[in-house]
Fold this sequence. Notes:
The protein is of the alpha/beta class. It has helices at residues 3-22, 34-47, 49-57, 61-71, 73-87, 132-146, and strands at residues 97-107, 113-124, 128-131, 168-170, 185-190, 196-198, 206-208. It has one domain.
Amino acid sequence: xxxxxxxxxxxxxxxxxxxxxxxxxxxxxxxxxxxxxxxxxxxxxxxxxxxxxxxxxxxxxxxxxxxxxxxxxxxxxxxxxxxxxxxxxxxxxxxxxxxxxxxxxxxxxxxxxxxxxxxxxxxxxxxxxxxxxxxxxxxxxxxxxxxxxxxxxxxxxxxxxxxxxxxxxxxxxxxxxxxxxxxxxxxxxxxxxxxxxxxxxxxxxxxxx
Length: 209
C-alpha cells in the first residue's frame, strides 16, 4: 500500500469531511457529538504518524516523539489531544487538555448575525486556547514534509454564507448529536483591518430550530 493513500484515507479525507460538517448550521453539544468523535479519530491518526515513521526508519518511537515535539508544536498538540481522549488524565499536567465545540458568529454594526462556522477549540494547560482546525492543518503539513509524502493538498477552513440575519440560529440534527441540553456560541466583530476579533454584543438573539 502506498503511504500516501493511507495518509489520505486516515487523515486528509476525514479532515475534509469534518471541515464540511463544521460549515453547516448545526447545533452541537459542546463536549459530545459527531464532531468530538471525529476530532478524536483525526488527532489519533496524526499522532500515530510517529509510530509509522519509527517503523519505516527503524527508530525508537519514544525518541522520535521527543524530536517531533520539539520540531512542531502543532504535532505535539495533536499528540496531547489524542492522549487526553484516550487516558483522560495525562502523566504531565502541562500536557493536560480538553476540547469543546462552539458556534462562531460575526456581528455587524447593525447588531445582526452571520454564521461563520462551528469552531473546535483545544483548552491546553500550557499552550492556551487553540483552534483545532488550524492546528491540525499545520500538523498535517508537518507530517507530509517529515515523511516526504507526495500529496498535493491545501487545507483551508470553510465558512458559512456571507448573509446576516437578525437572529443567530442553528439547526439540531439527531444524526450528528444524540443529545443536546446546551450549546456554546462565540461572537466576533471586524476591526479596522477587517480581521475578526472576539466581541460581546449588548444583546444576543439566539435560537435552535
